[in-house]
Write a structure and sequence with these properties.
It is a multi-pass membrane protein. By secondary structure, this protein is α+β, with helices and mostly antiparallel strands. Helix content is 61%, strand content 8%.
């Protein structure tokens, strides 16, 4: 390319080179670090046959993995405590060895604090439960004692009064019982989860055959369980039993139901004393727990301030050692040998980085930079910015460009949003999209560092694509003269006026041209007439064919530039030319007929012209004639279309076969040139280039390609009619929402109905027209680019350039 114009970085991928680096061991780490900062070298794995554990720096990677584990532990602890790591872009002024010691100390301290805190918290929760048991069970004993005293008083008063003959008899019976035969009752107290209390009670009665007395009291507030440390609703239980066997059964049932048991004294004085002791101990534990939490919070705060720096350092070190593991040791084991791809323009930068690394590491020997010759296909690298990257991603989603083939991303920047806008044309909706996108662009610095949802992040990533889509939608909306389906006389008054009052209900025959033609876009008088739909259908359908044929021709022309660039004359003469002739003999001619019809105002039916061009090429055209000599032109074009099919199919396989035979003949007498190293590289990577030429396979491939193009010329042209269909659907939906929702609500002369109608209109516009229709038009524009446009020239069988760069580690958490 000449010096008069700046180079088009996106039209072809950057020229790449295969390089070899020989790096002394002592400067290898610093060299990798500087190359990672540069981010312009993609290393090849020279140890692919080795397992990860057999590689040179496996131990260092294991160390980095352990440090990463500790940092993840710190992050979990910080998130649980409500701390967030502070963002920082500065590097940590600490070596990996010092960081390993420091993280080990911090982890041990934090684990110890967690263990002590858990013990104290468990003790605190147990004492809390114990206090509840003392209070609730004490209330039961107190009420039982009061009830017993009351009964004794009543019994004593009855004895003195001698009111009944039965009393002396009962007294004698009670006094006659042997004290040695009285049964001693035992009891257990504790708490049981309320949801298990009924089952707990049933199992107790069944296990002891009813020989127990169970009392349960509801605890009003949820209790923190000492084991799970979760808030649980519980009941205090008190169970009386007789015998050791019953006690053992009850203990096992308590364990099964997760019921916590606590000691309890029958003596009321001891109960009061126990409550006071527990309350004092709770107060002490509360102070101790709070002090421990404060100390732990301060420690986590200190970690949070340095966390991002440490995390970045560990990830970079791990990435460096992963990369160094891809390098091979030389025979002397004093140097590392690296091979990789880099852009040609980065040669000076890489050499400077190697020189700086050698100086900074005090290495006596500098690294050696060598260029290698190879026939291996290099990776594809486009230098994009925040505007062009999203458009390039659209192309790469179909397939990464082959090395230095023409990149459709250049044209996609304009054609993709334009085709979208043809389907979405409404300058009111376009303004809404523009304002929504403007929000993302204005706040892009803040939003780029925030964690967004999946859909929001996808929308933010494509903000400049949506911006272009909205701008083109405003443009096509002005051409269609639609603002939420309402026409405006923005560029002057309509060129037509009604002949009489009823003309709007008739056809355009009732309109008379009284002024000059409307200067830009569609005349607003068409909206609302009966002939609006037939007129717009005809206009948009023909416009879709014109745009489709133009874009398909662009694709075929780009195939010429590809063939010219790679020196493939066979593709120029036997692929580009017949394809161009075939497409334009049929649909290029149709496009010319459309333009002629528009210019002359003819009433000729173009369907008939194209049909009878095939069915009756020699018949008289009659009323289907648009211009003089049309019949001769059609015969010539039909002949060219027919001859281009065998022209595309037959010569190329035979010429490729002859070319292959000549190549093999020439190889028999060619001197071997190049160094031993370059031969070794070629032998490693180019064995697939020496495969035997299979004529039948090539011929079948060419046959399929020919059939695909011939049939695709028809189907692809028809596919562009989706531009007309979706534009019509968008316009009609917009019109329905305006007429049947907004105007209908306005006609009721009721404020409430009007407000409801406006709300429904807004939500329908946003939900259907601005979200669903946008997505639909986006997907259809995507299909037109991937299938109808790119299959004319784009192979897309390359692979992306993935340089060793620390910028990648910012998005990786491993």
């Amino acid at each position: 390319m000449g010096g008069c114009c700046p180079p088009m970085d996106l039209f072809r991928s950057e020229p790449m080179q295969l390089v070899r680096l020989i790096i002394p061991i002592e400067s290898s780490h610093l060299t990798a670090s500087y190359l990672g900062d540069l981010g312009l070298l993609q290393f090849k794995d020279l140890n692919a046959e080795k397992s990860p554990f057999q590689r040179t720096y496996a131990t260092q990677i294991k160390r980095c993995g352990e440090l990463a584990r500790k940092l993840r532990f710190f992050k979990d602890q910080m998130l649980k405590a409500g701390f967030s790591p502070k963002l920082s872009t500065t590097r940590a002024d600490i070596s990996l060895d010092d960081l390993e010691v420091k993280l080990g100390e911090l982890e041990a301290e934090l684990i110890e604090m967690n263990a002590n805190g858990e013990k104290l918290q468990r003790a605190y929760n147990e004492l809390g439960e114990y206090k509840l048991v003392l209070q609730k069970a004490g209330e039961f004993f107190h009420s039982a004692q009061s009830s017993a005293l009351e009964q004794h008083r009543e019994y004593g008063s009855r004895l003195t009064g001698e009111e009944s003959l039965d009393i002396p008899l009962l007294l004698d019976q009670e006094m006659s019982i042997d004290p040695s035969k009285q049964v001693k009752l035992g009891f257990l107290t504790g708490l049981v989860p309320r949801e298990k209390s009924m089952a707990f009670e049933r199992i107790l009665f069944r296990a002891t055959r009813g020989n127990i007395f169970l009392k349960q009291t509801v605890v009003e507030d949820p209790v923190t369980d000492p084991v799970s440390r979760e808030k649980v609703e519980k009941n205090v239980f008190l169970v009386f039993f007789s015998g050791e066997r019953a006690k053992n059964k009850i203990l096992k049932i308590c364990e099964a139901f997760g019921a916590n048991r606590y000691p309890f004294s029958e003596d009321l004085n001891k109960q009061a004393q126990a409550i006071n002791e527990v309350s004092a101990r709770l107060s002490e534990l509360k102070t101790t727990v709070d002090a421990g939490l404060l100390h732990r919070g301060n420690l986590l705060q200190t970690i949070a301030e340095q966390f991002e720096r440490w995390n970045l350092l560990v990830r970079k070190e791990k990435y460096i050692y992963h990369t160094l593991n891809m390098l091979s040791l030389d025979v002397t084991k004093k140097c590392l040998v690296a091979e990789g791809w880099s852009p040609v323009f980065a040669t000076k930068q890489i050499q400077d980085a190697l020189q700086r690394a050698a100086i900074d590491s005090n290495s006596q020997v500098g690294a050696i930079f060598q260029g290698l010759h190879t026939r291996e296909s290099p990776p594809t690298y486009f230098r994009t910015n925040k505007f062009t990257s999203a458009f390039q991603e659209i192309v790469d989603a179909y397939g990464v460009a082959k090395y230095q083939e023409a990149n459709p991303g250049v044209y996609t920047i304009v054609t993709f949003p334009f085709l979208f806008a043809v389907m979405f044309g409404d300058w009111g909706h376009g303004i809404c999209l523009f304002l929504a996108t403007l929000y993302f662009i204005v706040r892009e610095k803040k939003l780029s560092v925030e964690k967004l949802g999946d859909i929001t992040e996808m929308t933010f990533g494509g903000r400049y694509v949506i911006l272009m889509m909205s701008i083109f939608s405003i443009y096509t909306g002005l051409i269609y003269n639609e603002f939420f389906s309402v026409p405006f006389e923005l560029f002057g008054r309509s060129a037509y006026a009604c002949r009489d009052i009823s003309c709007r209900d008739a056809t355009t025959e009732g309109l008379v041209k009284v002024r000059s033609t409307y200067p830009f876009g569609l005349d607003p008088v068409w909206h609302g007439t009966r002939s609006e739909l037939p007129f717009l259908n005809s206009l948009k359908m023909k416009m879709s064919i014109l745009l489709g044929v133009a874009q398909m021709n662009l694709g075929i022309i780009l195939s010429y530039f590809n063939a010219k660039y790679f020196g493939n004359n066979i593709n120029i003469w036997f692929q580009f030319l017949p394809q161009l002739i075939f497409l334009n003999s049929l649909f290029g001619y149709l496009s010319v007929l459309i333009l002629v019809k528009w210019c002359t105002g003819s009433q000729v039916d173009l369907y008939h012209v194209m049909i009878y061009m095939f069915l009756g090429p020699t018949d008289d055209l009659g009323e289907n004639q648009l211009f003089a000599g049309q019949k001769t032109v059609q015969l010539v074009l039909l002949f060219l279309a027919l001859i281009s099919v065998p022209w595309m199919l037959l010569p190329k396989p035979f010429l490729l076969k002859k070319q292959c035979e000549n190549m093999h003949q020439g190889q028999s007498y060619t001197l071997i040139e190049g160094t031993e190293e370059s031969l070794q590289v070629e032998s490693n990577h180019d064995s697939h280039n020496h495969e035997e030429f299979d004529f039948s396979e090539v011929f079948v491939h060419q046959l399929i390609h020919t059939i695909e193009f011939v049939l695709g010329a028809v189907s692809n042209t028809a596919s562009y009619l989706r531009l007309w269909a979706l534009s019509l659907a968008h316009s009609e939906l917009s019109s329905v929402f305006y007429d049947k929702v907004l105007l209908l609500a306005w006609g009721y002369n009721n404020v409430i109905i009007l407000v409801v109608g406006i709300i429904v209109f807004i939500f329908a516009t946003i939900g259907v027209l601005l979200v669903m229709e946008t997505l639909s038009a986006f997907l259809h524009a995507l299909r037109l680019h991937w299938v109808e446009f790119q299959n004319k020239f784009y192979e897309g069988d390359g692979y992306k350039f993935h340089p060793f760069s620390f910028a990648v580690t910012d998005d990786d958490d491993d």
